[in-house]
Amino acid sequence: MRVAVECKSPLLQKSLEIFLSKHLSSLKNCDIVVRDIKVLDDERTFYISSSNGSDLIKPFSKSQLILALERRYKEMNRGNLHYLNKIYQEDELDDDSVMGFDILQKRIESLTKEYQENILRAVRAFYEK
């Protein structure tokens, strides 16, 4: 998932860039554009606002943001998911449970790897003194 951030609010812009640092991409090459202004003519727009009509309501946490973006990405790529299900012969499971589990599995792997890197960094720092 490649994400671009385009916000009028500098505070929201910077926060989103920090939250999405692993997923950031240019506006030209992204799958989703996160904005704080509603743009109707761009189907890639992910709208963040305080209003009920938004894709994500402020305030939000990093995990809420990532999960909402992953849901949107899944919706955008539903056709590809059906094709992958046929390849892996998982037709008995519906798209939501397969993709939901894959997202959860990838998120757990990412967090585990990040945790491992932090521990190794602390151990190296301790022994390099």
Brief summary of the model shown:
This is JHP0747 family. The chain is α/β, with parallel strands linked by helices and 129 residues long.
Which tags fit this structure?
single chain; 129 residues; alpha/beta; 2 domains; 4-stranded parallel β-sheet; 4 helices; 4 strands; globular
Strand order within the widest beta sheet:
1-2-3-4
pLDDT averaged residue by residue: 81
Rg, Cα atoms, Å: 18 Å
Low-confidence stretches: 89-94
Structural class: alpha/beta
Note the gap between the termini: 39 Å
Count of DSSP H/I helices: 4
Strand content: 5-15%
* Main beta-sheet annotation: 4 strands, parallel
**SSE run:** EHEEEHHH
- Which oligomerization state do the chains in this entry correspond to? single chain
Shape: globular
Helix content: 40-55%
- How many domain regions? 2
Task: Please outline the helices and strands.
Blueprint: E1 3-6, H1 10-19, E2 32-35, E3 45-49, E4 56-57, H2 62-76, H3 78-87, H4 95-127
Parallel strand pairs: 1-2, 2-3, 3-4
Task: Tell me about this structure.
By secondary structure, this protein is an alpha/beta fold. The chain folds into 2 domains: 1-60, no CATH class; 77-129, no CATH class. 53% of the residues lie in helices and 12% in strands. The termini are far apart. The model is unreliable at 89-94 (pLDDT under 50). It comes from Sulfurimonas denitrificans (strain ATCC 33889 / DSM 1251). This is JHP0747 family.
